[in-house]
Write a structure and sequence with these properties.
The chain is mainly α. Helix content is about 40%, strand content about 10%. It has a two-stranded parallel sheet. Helix 5 crosses helix 7.
């Protein structure tokens, strides 16, 4: 079996992420509701910028990041549907546009990142 294939013979979309030296490491970025509502991206941006300080760090953390928005558990909407989260994520992405390189290539975040920064159509 080649290194870029999954055991069930389906090719991996991002084979390099699976071979990352940080394979066992995971960077979980927790963003509290208070930070989102205040629009304060500075603490999270500071964490994210550490991953891009050097090429070696950027390669090490490829595909290892995950984001969790806390404080919205009682909200029935999906995180991507919450306007405050969308604005926060858009501001953060404007300052640090490297999500698709660093986020896990499995799970919902790979789908949510583009949606959260896209303009939301007005509902009729």
């Amino acid at each position: 079996m080649s290194k870029s294939e999954h055991p069930n013979n389906r090719p991996l979309r991002y084979p390099k992420a699976r071979l990352s030296p940080a394979k066992e490491d995971r960077l979980l970025i927790e963003i509290a509701r208070a930070e989102v509502e205040a629009g304060d991206i500075a603490p999270v941006l500071q964490q994210l910028e550490l991953m891009t300080e050097t090429r070696e760090l950027a390669e090490r953390w490829e595909g290892r990041g995950a984001v969790v928005f806390t404080g919205w558990d009682a909200d029935p909407r999906e995180v991507v549907e919450i306007p405050e989260v969308r604005r926060y994520f858009a501001s953060l992405t404007e300052a640090w546009p490297y999500w698709l390189h660093f986020i896990e290539k499995v799970g919902d975040l790979i789908l949510i990142a583009p949606q959260a920064t896209a303009a939301q159509a007005p509902r009729s």
